[in-house]
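In response to the reviewer comment on reproducibility (Comment 2.3), we provide here a single inverse folding case reported in full, input and output, so that an independent group could reproduce the run without further information from us. The structure tokens appear first.
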């Protein structure tokens, strides 16, 4: 599957540092070596760090930039990666600096001098996130540089390891989400997806898989309508983490369309290969549940994902069909490519009926309209409760994950009126497409349930590298949701 580095935290040994192989990373202020550890390293290098600090390369470098000194004198390392920072550099900037180190370090051995460094745990998290790569389906080059060892050297290695422990759980949750979203649809079928989630029982999660017969018995006609054109069986997977007391859980609901052709309302061929990521909401829910279990979160959280494949066939749902949801409302399907909201409608209603959650958050790569509105920098946030939305936005900001709240209102809701059913699955025009989608979902939120809808179509996968990850799946939302749970639901 994916590859993320193992990071060891070791006590500071100056002699061991000078003998380190591969690359050595060191943090230096604008005016040159500041801490005792960095000054000692500079002395071993014959003053190379001080000379760098006095040159134009360093003066032109920005905070968090990496400047490489190749074949440094006095060290066994092949290069020293010098990261520019100052005492006021905040934790998110240090996380990005860790990502910059990973991007510059390659695959060999890496030693990070963390003695006297503030937010060193954030550096480790950023390094782990950026070093991720997905090469499960690529032929391995026998002559390629082997994966090396990553070491953080600190005068208090035990304290740093304790700080980084929960962050390692977060990094694994993000990597798990990225793996799911990056997998091609012929590998990540609904069966395979469910099996990967069931395997998380070994972490302490309670996992239950609802198969098609049970979904039919329950009355999930909207969800089943999406998957009926595919040979892959539709499923709902329920993951429960009981780390709190007797309180009602937070419910996380994810759209898991493992591949979306658009159904009978077929998408254009160009770019359809990207629709392997249309299960991004379910991927984020799964990664968040993994992170919570790994760090033994002291909260009750239930994650539910609807797993379907939207395919055209002789048995597929047609435009103009009317389906009945679990709630009992009927839906006129105007566009079979607006399928994610049908999946979410049934799973959201089931989550509320069964678990009576204290709050509910759904995540979905739901609309192209959200990309038009917000690009790839922010997920769209919609909510029926200001305090709940503000808590989510604060958590996203604290973790550096872009999120922006958009409006809702009755005027947007009116366009969902149907002539033959209780509602249409899309509005009458293209205007405000992400908002009308949220209005559709709101119809399946029970009175008194605080609710947030996250449209992550623009943030779940990127076409270019970012500060904390290679191009492809980002794992957006795992860190924000983990932070929300820690801040709002744990004591």
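Designed residues, in position order:
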């Amino acid at each position: 599957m994916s590859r993320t580095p193992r990071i060891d935290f070791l006590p500071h040994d100056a002699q061991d540092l000078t003998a380190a192989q591969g690359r050595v990373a060191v943090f230096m202020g604008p005016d040159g070596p500041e801490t005792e550890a960095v000054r000692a390293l500079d002395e071993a290098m014959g003053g190379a760090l001080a000379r760098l600090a006095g040159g134009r390369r360093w003066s032109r470098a920005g905070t968090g930039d990496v400047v490489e000194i190749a074949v440094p004198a006095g060290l066994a390392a092949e290069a020293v990666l010098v990261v520019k920072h100052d005492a006021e550099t905040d934790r998110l900037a240090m996380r990005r600096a860790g990502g910059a180190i990973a991007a510059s370090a390659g695959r060999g051995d890496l030693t990070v001098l963390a003695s006297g460094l503030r937010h060193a745990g954030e550096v480790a998290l950023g390094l782990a996130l950026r070093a991720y790569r997905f090469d499960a389906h690529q032929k391995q080059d026998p002559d390629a540089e082997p994966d090396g060892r990553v070491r953080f050297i600190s005068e208090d290695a035990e304290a740093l390891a304790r700080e980084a422990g929960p962050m390692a759980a977060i990094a694994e949750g993000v990597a798990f989400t990225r793996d799911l979203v990056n997998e091609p649809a012929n590998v990540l079928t609904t069966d395979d997806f469910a099996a990967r989630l069931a395997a998380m029982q070994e972490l302490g999660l309670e996992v239950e898989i609802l198969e098609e017969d049970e979904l039919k018995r329950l009355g999930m006609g909207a969800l089943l309508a999406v998957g009926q054109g595919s040979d892959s069986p539709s499923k709902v997977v329920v993951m429960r983490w009981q780390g709190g007391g007797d309180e009602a859980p937070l419910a996380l609901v994810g759209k898991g369309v493992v591949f979306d052709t658009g159904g009978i309302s077929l998408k254009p061929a160009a770019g359809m290969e990207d629709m392997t990521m249309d299960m991004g909401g379910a991927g984020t829910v799964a990664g968040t549940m993994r992170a919570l279990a790994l760090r033994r979160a002291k909260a009750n959280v239930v994650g539910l994902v609807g797993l379907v494949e939207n395919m055209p066939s002789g048995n597929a749902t047609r435009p103009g069909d009317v389906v009945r949801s679990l709630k009992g409302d009927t839906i006129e399907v105007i566009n079979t490519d607006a399928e994610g909201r049908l999946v979410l409608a049934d799973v959201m209603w089931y989550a509320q009926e069964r678990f009576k959650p204290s709050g509910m958050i759904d995540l979905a790569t739901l609309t192209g309209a959200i990309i038009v509105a917000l690009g790839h920098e922010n997920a769209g946030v919609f909510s029926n409760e200001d305090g709940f939305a503000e808590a989510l936005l604060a958590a996203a900001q604290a973790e550096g994950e872009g999120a922006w709240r958009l409006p809702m209102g009755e005027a947007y809701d009116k366009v969902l009126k149907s002539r033959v059913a209780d509602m249409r699955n899309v509005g009458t025009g293209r205007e405000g497409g992400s908002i009308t989608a949220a209005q559709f979902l709101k119809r399946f939120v029970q009175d008194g349930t605080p609710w947030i809808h996250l449209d992550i179509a623009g943030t779940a996968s990127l076409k270019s590298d970012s500060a904390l990850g290679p191009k492809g799946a980002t794992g957006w939302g795992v860190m924000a949701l983990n932070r929300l749970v820690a801040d709002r639901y744990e004591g």
